[in-house]
Amino acid sequence: QVQLVESGGGLVQAGGSLRLSCSVTAPTYTMGWLRQAPGKEREFVAGIIWSSASRYYANSVKGRFAISRDVTQNTVSLEMNNLKPEDTAVYYCAASTVGYARSPQNYAYWGQGTQVTVSS
User: Fold this and answer.
1) How far is CA 38 from the centre of its chain?
2) Distances (CA, A) of 12 to 3, 20, 51, 59, 82
3) Per-residue pLDDT at 40
């Protein structure tokens, strides 16, 4: 029903930029990006309300990352700037029916994940 496919992950130098994209078959009320580093719990990164394009972010990425959506292509993007080694994680595109969802448990649909590695 709702299928998500991420792309754009890779290796980047600290201070660099990377753009992730997510193709979704049927956008839900809220679309988000969440990440999981080795040995850490999955955490919210950025979210967007599909209808209004209202955006919200985790404090750790605010001012560095930007989430956006393209209604003509059914895609959600995450522009990551000034990347830090602590941003290294598997990044997941996810879909939620909850407005301004932050908890991973409120995201019902998930992509396969894409690895982002930031080197010093």
Assistant:
1) 17
2) 27, 13, 32, 22, 10
3) 97
CA-CA distance, 120 to 52, in Å (whole number)?
Answer: 37
Contact 12/117 with Cβ under 8 angstroms?
Answer: yes
> For 46-71, how does the pLDDT look when each residue is reduced to its tens digit (9 = 90+)?
999 999 999 999 999 999 999 999 99
E strands of 1-88, at which residues? 4-7, 10-13, 18-24, 30-36, 43-49, 55-57, 65-70, 75-80
Predicted confidence (pLDDT) per residue in 83-110, tens digit: 999 999 999 999 999 999 999 999 999 9
The angle formed by the CA atoms of residues 45, 9 and 31, to the nearest 5 degrees, is 40
Helices and strands counted in the chain (H then E): 0, 11
pLDDT at 1: 87
Give the model's pLDDT for residue 38.
Answer: 94
- Cα(22)–Cα(94) distance, rounded to whole angstroms? 9
Beta-carbon count within 10 A of 55 CB: 14
